Amino acid sequence: MTKKVVHESSSMHVTGKAQYIDDMLLPENALTGYVVTSQIAHGRLMGFNLDEAKNTPGVHAVLCYRDIPGTNQMGAIAHDETTLVEHTIQFIGQALFLIAAVDEETAKLAASKITTEIEELEPVVTIEQAMEKGLQLNPPVVMQRGDCESALAQSQQVIEATITSGAQEHWYLETQVAVAQPLELNDMKVYSSTQHPTETQALIAEALYIGRHQVEVETRRLGGAFGGKETQANMVAIWASLLAQATQRTVKIRLFRDDDQQMTGKRHPFLTKFKVGFTKEGKITAYRVSFNANAGYSTDLSMAILARARTHAENAYFIPDIYIESTAWRTNLPSNTAFRGFGGPQGIHAIEEAIERIAQFLGKDAAEIRYLNFYQKEINNTTPYGELIENNHLETIWNKITKTSDYTKRKSQVDAFNQTSQFVKRGISLTPVKFGISFNTPFLNQAGALVNIYTDGSVVVHHGGIEMGQGLYTKMAQVVSEELGVPFDKIRVVATSTQNIPNTSATAASSGTDLNGMAVKNATDQLKDRISKFLATYWTNESKHTINQEDILFENNDVLVANQPELQLSFTETVNLLYQNRINLSARGFYSTPNLYFDKATQQGRPFHYFVFGMAVSEVELDVLTGKHRILQTDILHDTGLSINENLDIGQIEGAFIQGLGWCTTEEIKWDNKGRMLNHSPDTYKIPGIRDIPEIFRVSLLDNAPNPNTIKQSKAVGEPPFIHAFSVFFAIKYAVAAVKNHKVYPELNIPATHEKIVMAIEKLKQE
Ligand code: MTE
Ligand code: HPA
Ligand code: MOS
User: Fold this and answer.
1) Hey, what domains does the chain have and what are their CATH numbers?
2) The pTM is what?
């Protein structure tokens, strides 16, 4: 199989021909949907008057919560999110009313005519405020092994710290969007930019008070999602559907960028406290960590996100006695949600901080402390939640990357440079990742597919996954191409639809290819079985020799008999033959990941099918007067098993690293004490640009690392490489600490903006 097939839409992406929902040609009488939102973060809606708005010419519907035929509820997991506010207002940007009008101006004019009576209440914005008020979303959850308290008491050294990491805006290029089209019999077809069509379908059905069989959600591609459309695409789709049902016209809602940024949830900010015990060599003996997440106003995915933070609290390190506690706190912000890494980055941040502090305390290189604590192969290879780590590649990756990056030599060059340079300092850091693959909610690990072969030898593939730029459709076509031996361009992976593939899970947890790939292969296996069974009989009759089913091969658009070159038909001839003999050329596939279980009460089990490993080395140069820095070089060695598509995988690794870089360095969201977001547009919220990438950027895939029991022995790739950005964060911190010759550990959290770096340096100077 060629591993370098280009993304099936790449030429359409760059020529602007790829159709996104906003590009759809709508019927002439289609309406624009508009959401009227709260401008205060906390309060009570005491009364309102919609009459004038309704009487505005060009307005076709103005809806409040009383107009919802079904349940006024859109919480994906916990039922704690009203579709439209009834009484309590919980954040700025929360939906109060919906308007359908001939265009946006008319809708806005109508919105300005709505009068409301609102009683304002004091908002809670920060984790600290929520903790002070005891606003827990749920009781804390504890995962532990051994006896952490006594292990800490017996440790030769203990370091204690409180650290924070910030929110992150997803910054998908396509904002939240949906088109809802009313059909006969009160049915609804919805084009939604969602990572989770089945959940979108379910919530629309509940809101409209109709069956799920009456709602079709279709999604061809998203203009990026990054977790931001795992649950939070639902609301726009529900609102559009309510307006479409009320007006019996097609309704589109697409959020304006600034509104999207204000209304939707982000990566959870964390406030984390830890205590780490260690020996004088730097071996970790005990670790106690307490994660506190700012969940925003509702539950959303917070519980699963904290679960992933817990299962990534030790990253790549074996820690004998460990106590991990996590709590989600309720605030008056939009509900924070899935974002690439799903709590993993926040969990890993703390243990990597602990390692850095141990290294600084002992006057050793942090990479050496990391190596000393890595999970091993024969012993010390079980996670705090009881999962055995198999096929551990940490040692292999370490051996390779320390060599290819010339880590040790460059580290001493960095130190030498810093000795003679006062205002420019350099830093270098090597960081690892171990990331668990599977939804950490076991039942979600399932997928379906449908593969149809047509008698001209072409193939259409349906599966439950969502294409959001990551290349899932390309990989699915590659799987079919390799299995059936049909050329890539004779295969179409078509828009994902809840009518074709029901009861799907979100495309998330990096497992889109793992799950849907296996479901697709399950379908092609059935087709190959039917074809080869038929051909074995056929050729036995024709050639008067016994031909076995196992001898039938699918290659180069032909179907062959092994070692019998004269017994050969083209794929098209073959499928015609089957058709003439009335054999089904269509098959449904299904897959569920084997051997996954997790006991919530004991927090023990086997939540992950396998682990992904990787390491990064980054070197930075920092201007200590301005806090400005450049990345001189980044080397990444990352494990993708036997990659299905090396170009796509390298693209994912580069993209995840850069997205992580944004979270670690420039992306900072500021809220004032009224819960108002102060930077809700690209001119004040700084995502990485082309000039922020490393000057030398070398990404390699670990070779010879087949992953057993997965599609084509590959590994998931989407989220784990986000963690490689810590190599930059800790390289910056190293450069900052060089100002005081590493005598004092700098106070610098995530994001390390220029401003925060300068403040950290000023603080160091005063020590
Ligand atoms: N890549 C692109 N281009 N766009 C995206 O929105 N989302 C990421 C990752 N890579 C994303 C992306 C996230 S959060 C996940 S979970 C995975 O893709 C989901 O897709 P997969 O499971 O097919 O890898
Ligand atoms: N990742 C993404 N979404 C999820 C997960 C996960 O691990 N678990 C439940 N929903
Ligand atoms: Mo990814 S955060 O699991 O959508």
Assistant:
1) 30-122+170-263 (3.30.365.10), 270-440+600-766 (3.30.365.10), 446-592 (3.30.365.10)
2) 0.98
